[in-house]
Amino acid sequence: MIRFTVITVTYNAAEVLERTIRTVITQTYENLEYIIVDGGSNDGTLDIIKRYAAQDARIRYISEPDSGIYDAMNKGIKMAAGDYLEFLNAGDMYRDDKVLLDVAGYLGRGLNAADTDILYGSIIYVYPDGSENIRTYSQFCEKKLYYLLGDCINHQAMFAARRCFDDEIFDTTYRISADREWMIRQKKAGRRFKAMDRIICYYSLDPGSASIANEKLTWKENGSIIRKHLKAGYPIYLLVNAIRRCKLTYKLLHKAYELVFIRKA
Predict the structure, then answer these.
(1) Stated pTM of the model
(2) First vs last Cα of the chain: how many Å apart?
(3) Helix (H, G, I), strand (E, B), or coil: what is residue 40?
(4) Which domains does the chain have, with CATH numbers?
(5) DSSP E strand boundaries for 64-207
(6) Complete DSSP assignment for 124-185
(7) What is the mean pLDDT of residues 108-125?
(8) What does the pLDDT look like over 119-166, one tens digit per residue?
(9) What is the mean pLDDT of the chain?
(10) Backbone phi, then psi, for 219, in 5-degree steps?
């Protein structure tokens, strides 16, 4: 029976963490461990974690300073014992209580867990005004061209086999795009990605998130990653980046993006 490890990274998230914890521990698929990695919060977050950990033996946690989200995620990886790992950040929630049950079903029905390294579904974008859209991730999204277009699969939508982290944890020299860099490394290493027709979680599009608030650094890191791993496609990346920086062409590109990948919730 497949065992899942769900990892939540948090820091001073007392207002939103509890809803994330509850969406994990109420999953109908019970063969899971839940690891919470706290960065040394001082707002009551740790009290919430301790309360739930005392009630549910599947929850393990650490609370100590870290050097950023990917350092914390790496700590969670080192603690994990599951067959498949998934990262659900503080504030994010599973779509419903049967997500893990259905993912296990995909791995046991038509897909062989031994031949599926990374399984991913879709997510629901939750905008600041409360509106929602479904962000779909098809099999195309594991192609190298997809990364050259400046995008990547949201890591909350992804379940990765433990073997994918044996020698390949997140590179913490990237502050914002280390998950993207890890995915490309997995692709280059021949890992087998499989898309499933299943919504995994709600994902809050916070305008204060690192990738949005630090757009210049995001694009700088993304460009560095492409040059390092997909050098032959770097001119494509530069062209798409130029299109994004022009208001008119950006609107056209964004409209095409919405038609392909976005649908109403």
Answers:
(1) 0.94
(2) 32
(3) coil
(4) 4-264 (3.90.550.10)
(5) 84-87, 93-94, 118-126, 132-135, 158-161, 193-204
(6) EEE-TTS-EEEE---GGGGSHHHHHTT----GGGEEEEGGGGSS----TT-SS-HHHHHHHH
(7) 83
(8) 999 999 999 899 999 999 999 999 999 999 999 999 999 999 999 999
(9) 93
(10) -65, -35
